[in-house]
Amino acid sequence: MNLAHTTVLLWVWGSLQAFEIMEKEDIFQRTPCPAFLIFDNAAYLADMSFELPCRCKPEEVSAVVWYYQKHLGSSHTKVLTDFDGRVLTEETQARVGSDMLVRFSIRMFSLLVFRAQPEDSGLYFCGTRKGDYFYAYDVDIQSGEGMVATFKDLGQEPFADEHRGSLHIFTAFWEWTPCDRCGVRGEQWRIGLCYLRSPDLSPRYQKTLPDVVSCGSQAVPWKLRATAREHTPELLVQSCVVPCEKKTTQQGVMAIFSYVSKVGSRPWVPQVPIQFHQQRLGHGLIISCPGARPEHAVAWDKDRQYLYRTQYLKGVNRSMRVFIDHGNHLHIRFTQLSDRGIYYCWRQGVQVAGFRLGVTSQGRYRPSFSDPETRSAVELTLIGYLFITAVFVAIHLCRCCCYLFRCCPNFSP
Length: 413
Fold this sequence. Notes:
The chain is built from five helices and 23 strands. By secondary structure, the protein is α+β, with helices and mostly antiparallel strands. Among the domains are: about 40-140, Immunoglobulins (Immunoglobulin-like, Sandwich), CATH 2.60.40.10; about 150-240, no CATH class; about 270-360, Immunoglobulins (Immunoglobulin-like, Sandwich). The strands form five sheets. A six-stranded mixed sheet has the order 4-3-7-8-1-13, with no helix packed on it. Strands 9, 10, 11, 12, 14 and 15 form a six-stranded mixed sheet that branches. The relative contact order is 0.10. The model is unreliable at about 5-10, about 15-30 and about 85-100 (pLDDT under 50).
């Protein structure tokens, strides 16, 4: 009887495995590849990570190869994988400014691009090692440098749509993020990217809505793209209040706390992991929230002070020394003694980490060109030398001209 049961279980398990494999294969069987290659438009904000799935492929193709072109028909094409599709890159290893060949990965026929930059905009092809394409994307990475923040609590409204003849330029907003804090007043926001509607778009590019694509799409003619370049992405911010989820504390820990509280004072135990960092006085510091992305709801607190975006978002005040950029990083320029404390990081409404910052005026500091302050000091020094040299040359040229044309006054007695 046991042998019969074992046989039945093995047969059922084998059937389930075959069913799972057939389901994965049927995904590509149910999605036929288009006879004429059409580009699927997609837009993202800079520093975001995104995935481009290869939605169709022939049955005989076991591994896909991804290609990249800056413009359609360009003679320079990048191969974004080895010819077996086994290139893997972890997101934590990808840094801002790295080459695109370092910031991508291929998993289950899909292309993953980490920390995308505006120069990564272009056409992405899913094909074979022979150069046969069967699916393509038109990717538009919009820069966040000129992003405009709109605060609903202050009565501000997003930019109005622009109408220039048949051209309609507008902002398409994403969904609201979760509240970045719980138990206290928090904030939530939504990112808006530039889109346009025009009947002059190329028909080879697939649109979600008729005649609507992102402003940097390859489907937009160069004249219209230059006009829409002035419409920057937007960030809409509003306040929110949500309760915190109850956390269960281990009984053993509570028993120890009860015993310590009876004997003496109860010790301070941090709710999140705390990392210590010592910073030299007068130098800049950038703090990142662990596991956070630009599209996540991230908040920062200093001890018991809430650093709201209404006051600390980059661009609110040009003279800000402490601010939060659009990538959710906390910047401290020219560190002062008053900056000492614990900086807490919230991610998706949950407090996840803390950074205890100490400021010291002693110790050696090795200058490095990777330090922004060092680069700024070198640039200012070079500019000063160039200015002095230019003044010196200009004075001598004037004296030579005066001597040649005898227009220089004679100061001799």
